[in-house]
Amino acid sequence: MMPEGAALTSLRVEGLQRFRLLKADAAAAVTERLYALHDTTYAPFGQRGREACREDLAFHLEFLQPTLEFGLLQPMVDYLHWIASVLAARAIPSAHLAVSLDLLAEFFTEHMQATDAAVVSAALGAARAQFLRGRELPRAPTLPSTAWPEATAFEAALLAGDQRAAMVLVNACIDQGQSLIDVEQHVIQPALYHIGDCWQANQISVAEEHLATAIAQAVMTTGLLRSPVPEMLGKRVLLACVAGNQHAVGLHMVADAFQLAGWDIRYLGASVPGPAIVQLAADWKADLVGLSASFAHQLRGVKETIALLRETIGPGGPAVMVGGLAFNRFPRIADLIGADASTADARAAVACANRIVNG
Fold first, then answer.
1. Whole-prediction pTM
2. How many CB atoms are closer than 10 A to CB 147?
3. pLDDT more than 90, % of the chain
4. How would you classify residue 306: left for phi > 0, otherwise alpha for psi between -120 and 50, otherwise beta?
5. Mean local confidence (pLDDT), 337-347
6. Rounded to an integer, what distance in angstroms lies between the CA atom of residue 126 and that of residue 32?
7. How many CA atoms lie within 13 A of 205 on its CB side?
8. Angle at CA of residue 265, ends 179 and 230, nearest 5°
9. Helix/strand/coil for 247
């Protein structure tokens, strides 16, 4: 069994460009192949099922791309386990995942040069083999071990759509002397993680998950207004989720931590194009740029943004820190894409930033 983090051969630049051009055609073609093979199984899902199949195949290839670019297999395997659990919870045959990977390999073998096609086929085959070896039944969602007891009640308030109850819980923690950063880390974040797991297990709807996120962010903003005003350090940090990353709550927590530590912040939120990040960093003369990626297929956007930042501002430009689930899972990727540092949580981000900017 290939060990976690083992490296595969990477595609050359021309091959990667060709792969990106073929992704949409590959997803469409393999959808038709799957329906031809399993028409009886898929017929009850109707036209929406066909569209969902094509969307899933497109996601397969989005998650395969960092394997082809960086040579790391595990992000693709992690994705396959995740999508298998999502499909199983919705009574959709997850066993067909392996077939879809075989069909994708056949497509790229027919449409790419032999050397590049061999790299793509090897990556798909290795991901397929490791996924099948390690396949597990979906597990019941559980709260993270870092959660305080209040996280359970806070989650219940979020799922009930009760912003007032959520606010009462957070205010009570602050009244007891807890900092907003600790409340976010041990109450709000664990509750949201658990809610995400419940959506994955088809126990709640996507609307309920979005409502919970919206309430949590509103509560965080109110908690920030209750927090002591810090002495300013005279340092500037620009924070943004790269294009395609819609998961901004974690970065919101990082922004709160920087603000409460005395940094001047510009928090741009979800899915910001790289050129816009670079332009504002240059105009505002940021000391630090923080970029967030949630999934492995967003790493290319981080890499391109960092390269553009270096090219545009030059050696006197801001330091770059990266974070988010993609880096928490594979921290050594930060070095491969040119970042100065990677941290796992808001408090660590501030401590690291103080070292690299002031040191």
1. 0.76
2. 20
3. 62
4. alpha
5. 91
6. 24
7. 5
8. 40
9. coil
